[in-house]
Amino acid sequence: MDVFLARHAESTWNAEDRWQGQADVPLSMRGLAQADALGARLDGVAFDLRITSDLARARQTSAAIGGGFAEDPAWREIDLGRWSGLLHTEVSERWPDEVRALAEGTDLALGGGESLPRFEARVLEALASVRARTPENGRALIVTHGGVIRAIVMHLLGLRRGRPLVGAGNTALCHLRFEASGRGVLVGYNCTAHLERRDPPGVEAWTDRPDEVKIRLAEHLSLEPRGTSALAPPPDGRETRIVLRGGVRQLLSYALPVRFDPRSD
C-alpha cells in the first residue's frame, strides 16, 4: 500500500515565524493559494482513505483537495505548551536548553507540553491505524503537520539524533510504501512540484544512478543498514537534494519527480 503525507499550507503563524504546536491557526492568503495548488495537483487522484488533522490549518488544506476527509486529532502537531504563539527567536532566547533538547531528541516535555518520545509513539500508532484500514494495494492520503512527517521519516530511516532532515515545506508531499510483510520504504520526500521552486543556499542536487544515490545519502546521513534499506531506489532521472547548513549536510528532498502523479509513482 502507498501512504502519502501532505503538510498543511502556510498558516498566519508560519508567515510570522511563530511556533504553533496545537494552536488552531488559520491559513494565510499565501497558504490558501498553496492549498489550491495542491488540490489541483491531486485532482482526479483516487485515495482509498483520506484523513486530516483536526486543526484548522490542516482542515483548510484538505478542503482545497476535496471531500471525504475524516478528522483525526491523532495527526495533530506536537503539543508545545508555553512555546505556542511565540517567535522562534523568543523561544531560543528564553529556553535555549529546551531548544537544544528538541534538536537532540531528548525526552523532555517541550514547553511543558509533549515530549518527543511520547509524540513519536502517538504518531506511529496513528500510522499503524491507517495501514490497518487501507486495503492491499490501496492508497491513503493524510493531511498533517511538519513535525509529524519528520517523526515518521526519522523513525523509518532509523535516525534518532540531530537534525538530518530539512522539515517538509508547506503542502509538500511525502510518499511511503508498505509491503505485505509490513516493511516500509521512503519513495519520495518533500516534493513541492506544484509550487514555484525556491531552493535555499548551499543546495547540492544528485541525479546519479539509483544505487549511487542511496550509497551517497547513507554516507551523508550516517545511515545504518536498516535505514539504507528503507530508501526505495529512485527511478532514473529523479532528483535528490542535500543542503549544507552550519557545516552539516541535511536531506532537503528525496527522489523528486519532474511532475508528481500518485497514479503512476
Structural write-up:
The chain has 265 residues and is an alpha/beta fold. The protein has one domain (2-200): Rossmann fold, CATH 3.40.50. The chain has nine helices and nine strands. The chain has helices at 12-15, 29-41, 56-65, 88-94, 96-104, 116-133, 146-157, 210-221, 225-229; strands at residues 2-7, 49-52, 70-71, 139-144, 173-178, 184-191, 203-206, 239-245, 248-256. A hairpin with a 5-residue loop joins strand 5 (173-178) and strand 6. The longest helix has 18 residues, at 116-133. The chain starts with a strand and ends in a 9-residue tail after the last strand. The mean pLDDT is 90.
**Cα end-to-end separation:** 12 Å
Topology, number of strands:
9
Any idea what the CATH superfamily is called?
Phosphoglycerate mutase-like
Our count of domains comes out at 1
General form: globular
**CATH class, please?**
Alpha Beta
Q: What series of H and E elements makes up the topology?
A: EHHEHEHHHEHEEEHHEE
Counting helices, strands and paired strands, the structural category is alpha/beta
Summarize the structure.
This protein is of the alpha/beta class and 265 residues long. It has helices at 12-15, 29-41, 56-65, 88-94, 96-104, 116-133, 146-157, 210-221, 225-229; strands at 2-7, 49-52, 70-71, 139-144, 173-178, 184-191, 203-206, 239-245, 248-256.
Keywords summarizing the entry:
265 residues; alpha/beta; Rossmann fold; six-stranded mixed beta sheet; three-stranded antiparallel beta sheet; 9 helices
How would the blueprint of this fold be written?
Blueprint: E1 2-7, H1 12-15, H2 29-41, E2 49-52, H3 56-65, E3 70-71, H4 88-94, H5 96-104, H6 116-133, E4 139-144, H7 146-157, E5 173-178, E6 184-191, E7 203-206, H8 210-221, H9 225-229, E8 239-245, E9 248-256
Parallel strand pairs: 1-4, 2-3, 2-4
Antiparallel strand pairs: 1-5, 5-6, 7-8, 8-9
